[in-house]
Amino acid sequence: MTTLTTLRPDLQLIADWVAPASRVLDLGCGEGELLAWLQQHKQVNGYGVDFDVNNVVSCVKAGVNAIQGDLEAGLAEFEDQRFEHVVLSQTIQAMQHTEEILLEMLRVGREAIVTFPNFGYWQNRWQIMQGHMPVSDDMPYQWYNTPNIHWCMLGDFENLCAKNHIRVLERVVMAHGRRVSFLPNLRGSLAFYRVGRG
Amino acid sequence: MSNLSSSVGIVAPQHADFATPLPLSSGHVLASYRLTFETYGTLNAARSNGILICHALSGHHHVAGRYSADDKAAGWWDNMVGPGKPIDTNRFFVVGVNNLGGCHGSTGPSSIDPDCGQPWGSRFPVVTVPDWVTAQARLADRLGIDRWAAVIGGSLGGMQALQWSIDYPDRIAHALVIASAPKLSAQNIAFNDVARQAIITDPDFLGGDFYAHGTIPRRGLRLARMLGHITYLSDDGMGEKFGRMLRSGEYQFGYDVEFEIESYLRYQGDKFSDYFDANTYLLMTKALDYFDPAKDYGGDLVAALKKASASFLVASFTSDWRFSPERSRETVKALIAAGKRVCYGEIESVHGHDAFLMTDQPYVDLMQAYLDRVAAEVNA
């Protein structure tokens, strides 16, 4: 097991939102870097979920509890209000059942942390004006091979929350690893939301 | 990286005789009994690197290695257990044991009942998974192992690993529960009963006391094994291997062996009936049917698992319909609800239930990664 000292900036922002010694569920956990860091630095008790068996193997190597599963099928393995934080990092835009996963997250957890590439980012708008679908560091796919099927901007996500009576507790927008507060929907490439029922 | 070609080499079975009576779930008491087992690797000074391998329906203590240089077949899990393999005998002290009621050296229906000097036969009591675990714990005492680094099993073996975590929470650090279930479904019990009926209705079974008459209920055993074998493979796997291939290439318009699958199943059935004891088959299937650790907790598996302190690896295989991934997910769900540390892998495989004995790469990788974690914890 290796000790992680630094996290990717977007994961660090999520990690900062997680309370010490809390119960965390990381959906689409990949190789488990966020949970491994949280276990080592914040003594959280967590599970990761990932579709790919090779990611589960990586999580095992990283000392992270990983459950192989398909988020599209819901979170039946987890009982109501089992976790303090449920994380869905840069995955919601690639999901078929977008609204359902958001509701599931707040069924099994008190708070949901959702991050996604902001389609309203000026570089995306610029590429569209030039006549092409946007391709960037945060969305490195061509239109014909992208897994990202449900694009949204900040306001779109907030409308979905409002429709389901979900409260936005905190919002941070970033570009190039830095926070953006002025004209976030234009200048921000990544959106971070902390939402809940409270 | 695991090296699947290396072996533990030439091995020999050992025996442990127990004179302390063993009370069984059924209410019967086994006054004395023998367990036959094998060990591979070396127990470290801290006695912390022991791994118990629990066998499934037709398995036994001969897990790895060969009995002689010209022994044709290696132990039943030789592809997973050995130097440099996931269950690495350079790091772990691995114990394989034949369960009570077995027919490979441990006390069972074909052993001699010391009270009357005759084979136990129909008088051998039905034993359950918890009974096996109690007997295995006594073997652990005998070997000087207070706490297993891991207890590992597939299918019925996985049930024993799960039972260990409940019955002896302080004596097991990790439970690896592979291609198993927290209890059998009605369909699964139904398959077992057809197998039992095949044996019991064989005229040579003689109520289970066929030993004295020099007969073996060969036809029943053969049918039971053929049926079982079908359920251990997947439709796709069978199709890939045999398809509709004919032995002679042409229809014979008769009832002899024509399709390759018929030939394969009959061969497997014949081979099995040559060495496996009919009463043991009945007993093992009953142990499967009765397994239900939640039963003592009002059917609540979460409550049953509450006192477990082990970490768990649960694994299932996509084409396994006898112990389907859904059944493994029930175990996982209960472990999560009970707040246990658990990893779960659902391995893509065409090998059906038998996949737990195969070496699909993600399965080997998962076992390797998990056992590396176990080894690191016990400084093996």
Automatic annotation (TrEMBL), chain A:
Any matching Pfam family: MetW
CDD domains, A to Z: AdoMet_MTases (cd02440)
Database matches in InterPro entries: Methionine_synth_MetW, SAM-dependent_MTases_sf
Protein name: Methionine biosynthesis protein MetW
From TrEMBL, chain B:
The reaction(s) this protein catalyses: L-homoserine + succinyl-CoA = O-succinyl-L-homoserine + CoA
Active site: 155, 320, 353
Sequence ranges assigned to domain AB hydrolase-1 in this UniProt record: 51-329
Pathway: Amino-acid biosynthesis; L-methionine biosynthesis via de novo pathway; O-succinyl-L-homoserine from L-homoserine: step 1/1
Membrane-spanning ranges: none
Keywords from the named record: Acyltransferase, Amino-acid biosynthesis, Cytoplasm, Methionine biosynthesis, Transferase
Localization annotation: Cytoplasm
Residues carrying the site annotation Important for acyl-CoA specificity: 322
Domain of life: Bacteria
Amino acids binding substrate: 225, 354
EC code(s) of this entry: 2.3.1.46
Described purpose of this protein according to its UniProt entry: Transfers a succinyl group from succinyl-CoA to L-homoserine, forming succinyl-L-homoserine.
Binding partners and assembly: Homodimer.
NCBIfam families for this protein: homoserO_Ac_trn, PRK00175.1
Descriptive protein name: Homoserine O-succinyltransferase
